[in-house]
Amino acid sequence: MQATREGTVTDGAAAGQPYVYRRRELVEPDWTRLPGWRGVTREQWESAQWQRAHCVKNVRQLRAVLGDLVADRFYADLEADQRGLATMSMLVTPQMLNTMVPLAVPDTDAFYADPVRRYMIPVASDRRTDWPSHPYASRDSLHEHDMWVAEGLTHRYPTKVLAELLSTCPQYCGHCTRMDLVGNSTPAVAKLKLAGKPVDRYEAMIAYLREHPGVRDVVVSGGDVANVPWRSLESFLMRLLEIVTIRDIRLATKALMGLPQHWLQPDVVEGMERVGRTAARRGVNLAIHTHVNHASSLTPLVARAVHTALEVGVRDVRNQGVLLRGVNACATDLLDLCFALQGEAGILPYYFYMCDMIPGAEHWRVAVWQAQQLQHEIMGYLPGYATPRIVCDVPYVGKRWVHMVTEYDRERGITYWTKNYRTSIEAADSEALSRTYPYYDPIDTLPESGQQWWREQQAAAWARVWPVGSRAARG
Length: 475
Ligand code: SF4
What we know:
binds iron/sulfur cluster, alpha/beta, ten-stranded mixed beta sheet, three-stranded antiparallel beta sheet
């Protein structure tokens, strides 16, 4: 520290640094600044039932909260997205809506520009019109469904499984990678439905895990486990804890941030304590994985829910954010978020995933080289154990750190990756470990020559599907 002539104290270490850390304590934005919630009491706000009952599910309900603060053109833009483009239906908890333009009364421009709004309430004008989707985008871009060994149980890595207990969440994110399954159908996407009864599906999952002692790690997910009735979730977790070969259990819940009120309900806290105590007695690592993409989503209520979970025996709470253009894809936003997670909310900044190659996501996705640059820019500020890895979830491969690329065609935006294990569908594939697997950058980030190459590929593919004669015949 140095004293200046004016008597103020400056931080010499911060001078000239690309990022300057300053502690910012969490603030609960004042929900009464929004016209629809002027009369809402603290007791109502902190009630999970009130939050669930007042989720915003459509344009009319959003208008009832924001009223004239936001112009009609915004509501029309949202309606256009919901009518023809959205892969997720709208569902926003009051808690999350209140973190949009958190420290001011919103107006149209501020609401449009808000990073949380950009992924929770996407509008038609957010999306790209040149390449709204990458030609290789697909509904189940990670092929999780292909790797189901029981309904909802994905066995992709040798020692780990993903158990999707249900297909709903208390909030729906516009970029959801499980858009194939999660949420209600939209005009653009008819969702896959889980066919079996929950009790039968859970039984089949437990049976598979008992029969496969090489699986030691279960991500219990969905959807969001906050939507599983507590007694069912506790019973599933207790049965998992009886399998002596299971050593890690991770509960996936964005609701820890989007609906912290859920995780603060007395019956849920008491239940978590029973599960936490049992896990500790059996030496199992019980953790919560949440999904926070921007520092403004972290409030004192979120921190209270995290600290409560840690107090009742959850060993760790970790964040798996998603790197999204327009939301957090710059070093300052990522570092602000990581410091708020680590320093204020008690959440370990663990991963940032690159946004997966689902339809309609090109305006959110970043190129691999941009992700590599961001990883470089965030190194060295946080404690090493709390410095998140930016990872690319490569189809048929799994998570790779973004610097693990084997080859990179920068002109066409194609990266090639390798892997060191077989997924559950490759037992007989002799080349699974020797071939390379492609991943694609958003086309608008390529040089013009690369963009032209993709246009030609599209035109050729279109000509194959609709030969000239057939086009004429169809008028
Ligand atoms: S909380 Fe997770 S599973 Fe649910 S919509 Fe968001 S990203 Fe998808």
